Amino acid sequence: MIDYHIHTSLSADCDVDMMEMAAAADKKGLKEICFTDHYDIDFPSEDDYTVDFELYAKQLSEVKAAYPQINIRKGVEAGLEPHSFHRFEKLLENEELDYVVGSVHVVCGLDPYFDTFWKSTGRQKAFDEYARLSLECVKAADFYDVFGHLGYISKYCPMDNNLFKYSDYTGVVDEILTTLVERGQGLEVNTSGLLKTGNLMPDLPIIQRFKQLGGEIVTIGSDAHASELVGYAADYTLNALKTLGFKYVCAYDKRVPRFIPIP
Prior knowledge:
Elements: E1 2-6, H1 18-27, E2 32-39, H2 53-66, E3 71-79, H3 85-94, E4 99-103, H4 115-121, H5 123-140, E5 146-147, H6 170-183, E6 186-190, H7 193-196, H8 204-212, E7 218-221, H9 234-243, E8 248-253, E9 256-261
Parallel strand pairs: 1-2, 2-3, 3-4, 4-5, 5-6, 6-7
Antiparallel strand pairs: 8-9
């Protein structure tokens, strides 16, 4: 039905071009997708994790012409770090986007994707710092539309008890979710967690708590970096949201949410 978190070769960590990702979406019968390539300012890597927006516009125009049957939206995944907020705000003033998902990728100076992170940090410190930083970013910045993959720290944790649980961070998570609700921002339900932990990201109790606190804006994203993962577990996720009481999943047009009924 919908996938609002797809990467392409415009992201430093993806080798699949936009046209191939769109072809995969069409093959799977998706009606709406949003490309959300990485824009991480000062990302701790030799690779450039920013987006060439001129190339983005050119490729997007070609893809839209090739697949007019799909509603294709222009988005970006903003890597949230407190020191770069002002630069993001300036960037977004000059770029017309449909959707911005804000995500915490860097914890203790490094992305948890890397093995060296876990060797130097350890589980408890990593999870505690991720929770603290996520709250700081949510409280301090409002230039994004939804908060992305809450619980990202779980995705690459090589240790036992690798799930970011609501019961372990109740106060912090409640404050994060309450802030999003009060500001009219949403929560992304990222299906890639199913591949790593067997759970959606965030976990169902966190999604349920968002609903209890008045949250209505939820998006679904596969976080696909490979064409075979486009639309991954979308039907499963829609059913899970429906079970929790959500009636709609959101899409975005020029940063304005559009509510699509869950069948």
